[in-house]
Amino acid sequence: MIDFEGKLTPYHQTAQIVIGLIENGITPGKEVFVTPRVANANEETAFRQIMAFLSITETIVSAKEYNDIQPIIEVILPMVSSADELIEVKKRIDSVAKLAEKEFKMKKNKNLLQIIPLIEEVPELLNIDSIIYQFVTKLRNNDYPVDYLRFMLGRSDPALSYGNVSAVLANRVALSKAYKIAESLNINIYPIFGGGALPFRGHVTLENIYNVLETYPGLKTITIQSGLRYDQPRTKLIELIKILNNELPNSKAHFCSETEYQQLYNYVGIFTANYLDAFFEIIPEVAKLSDYIPKQRDRLARKSGVGYARDIARPEEIAKLVNIESIKNKLNKLNTDKKFALPRAITFTASLYSVGLPPVFIGTGRG
C-alpha cells in the first residue's frame, strides 16, 4: 500500500515502486497488487486527492511500455462516511482518466480504478450496510459495473475515538451487516482488516492470530503493518503469513440476529460512555505528549494549514441505537464541544504506553 493520506508521500513514489517491480521481474496487477491510499477530500483537500490520482494514472501509462497489464486497479479511500462521497471520488477518477486519454492516448476505461472504502468510525461501522447498499446502487445507476466490493475496516481509529472494546464489537457488527446486505445486492464482498500489532490497534501477531480470525469472522485480507514486519523476527512474520494464506480463504461470516445486534449496540454504548468519560479528561495532556513521539515517516502536521486531525467522537449517534435509557442519557450528556486536535492512533498509543498506561485499559473496567 502506497499511503498518500496525511503524509508527504512523493508524487513519483507510485511509478518508482511499480516500475521497480517490473524491472525486477514481478508483474504488478497480476503477481502483486499495488494499492494506493489517497487523501479524503473532505478531510484534506481535493487537490491532494487529485494529485494522487494523477500519480496513479501516470504510472498506468508508464507501465504500458513494459506490458499490457494494468498495474494498479484499486485505491483505498479513508474516513468514509457516506456513499455520496464515494461517488464524488469515482467521478473525480473519471475526470483524471479523461485527461490521460486526451494527453497520453490512454485507452478508455470507465472502470479504471475500483474504490476500496475504508470505514474508520464506530457510527459508520454500525451503519455499514446502508453505506454499501447506497454505494453499489448509485454505481449501478451511473452505469458502473459492480461484480464485487472490497472494503476495509479500521481498527486503530475507532479504538482511539470510542475505546478498544467498542472498536472490536463495531467491527463484528460491520462484518455481519456487510455480508447480509451483499446477499441482497447479489455481489461478492472481500473485507479487509486494517489492524496493527499492539492490542489497542488490532493485536495482529503470530501469538494472537487465531483469536483475531475467531473475533472477526469473514475476513479475506489482513494488513501486515510495520510493527509486525520490523519489531519481530522475520520467522514469525513468515509463519503468520502462512497461517493467513491457509485460513482466510475459508473464513465464513457470522450472521447476527436482531436481538444480537441490539445487545451489541448496548454494549458499544456502555463501553463508549465509560471510555469517553475518561478520555476527555486525559486527551489534552496526551495530545501534547504525542507531539514528542518520534515520527517514522513524513506526515502533514497535526495543526497546520495543510494538515488535519481526526474528528472528535460522536456519542450521540451511538445513543440513537441504544435502548437502555441510562446509557442513552450518559452518551447524550457527554461534552463533545471541547476543542482540541486528536493525535494519530499510533502516537496516542505510544504516548500512553510511555507513561505506563496501556490504552486498552481506559474505560474497560467500568464497562
TrEMBL record:
GO biological-process terms attached to the record: carbon fixation; tricarboxylic acid cycle
Keyword set, alphabetical order: Carbon dioxide fixation, Lyase, Magnesium, Pyruvate
Keyword Metal-binding: no
EC number(s) on file: 4.1.1.31
Keyword Magnesium: yes
GO MF entries: phosphoenolpyruvate carboxylase activity
Domain of life of the native organism: Bacteria
Name of the featured protein: Phosphoenolpyruvate carboxylase
Organism expressing this protein natively: Halanaerobium saccharolyticum
